[in-house]
Amino acid sequence: MYEAGIREFGQQGYIRQAQDKHLCRSFGSEVSRLSVAVSPPYRPTHTGRSLQLFPFHKLIAKSATTVILGKMAVPPTYADLGKSAKDIFNKGYGFGLVKLDVKTKSTSGVEFKTSGSSNVDTSKVTGALETKYKWAEYGLTFTEKWTTENTLGTEICVEDQITKGLKLTFDTTFSPNTGKKSVAGYEGWLAGYQMTFDSAKSKMTQSNFSVGYKTGDFQLHTNVNDGSEFGGSIYQKVNDNLETAVNLAWTAGSNGTRFGIAAKYQLDSSSSISAKVNNASLVGIGYTQTLRPGMKLILSALVDGKSINAGGHKVGLGLELEA
């Protein structure tokens, strides 16, 4: 699925965003996606006019819709809506896993990122490899991705070459699913929509909508997935050392409401502790220690509060290396 998005910042601080759906090429299970983001000082004169995106692919994108909103910084991607609260619940934990992440950079400028994990219960080992090379002279960035699930991906990014402030990204992955995402914002308020289309079955498999509000130390986020799953989260940075988050979720037709509370406390410049608990009485604790610059050790444990003496608790160990 090829997507094009243009953001224009005028002298009045307005945002003009045009999101387009165009071509979908499938080669077996391969789906390509093209994303375009325009930031100042680039100002297209006509959003309804044809815009040639990638001459070497002979792709032409035409404006479909235009949304004009008030003052705000560049809206985040759909996946980043409510990200601060998600990070408090997810980062610093690895229950039942032994993980290793390594980041290195060669003298020629090629960046390598390798990650691997082993499930203690199933003994299943998974891994991923990512290489990134930046050709600064031409504003090009090439990224190759591979996982042990036999998923391959290639990303090519061109920035500030066709015109100042124009960024083009060509992303190809071996996956039968593709999606359209759009986010708009107004004075701290954010609204986003996401849809997923299964090219193998020729039908839409996902339709999600989100609304959020964001300030410097407080974030509120709500979402509706497929019209049946509802969720919300609240994030607050209490002070420089303490961050807290609360999330809620429920499904239409069900009386059960899922909720959780999480917090992260920075003990000092090199260590932090995280804790979370949900309505199922599952208590998670994580400890992150920076052993030295570029090396982090992560310890975590998950305890079932309903059956402390029965066992079934999980521990996790992670090591992050960066050079």
From TrEMBL:
Primary location class: mitochondrion
Membrane-spanning intervals of the chain: none
Catalytic activity, as annotated: a 1,2-diacyl-sn-glycero-3-phospho-(1D-myo-inositol)(in) = a 1,2-diacyl-sn-glycero-3-phospho-(1D-myo-inositol)(out); a 1,2-diacyl-sn-glycero-3-phosphocholine(in) = a 1,2-diacyl-sn-glycero-3-phosphocholine(out); chloride(in) = chloride(out); K(+)(in) = K(+)(out)
Pfam families (alphabetical): Porin_3
This protein's GO CC annotations: mitochondrial outer membrane; pore complex
GO MF term list: nucleotide binding; porin activity; voltage-gated monoatomic anion channel activity
Function: Catalyzes the scrambling of phospholipids across the outer mitochondrial membrane; the mechanism is unrelated to channel activity and is capable of translocating both anionic and zwitterionic phospholipids.
Listed name of the protein: Non-selective voltage-gated ion channel VDAC2
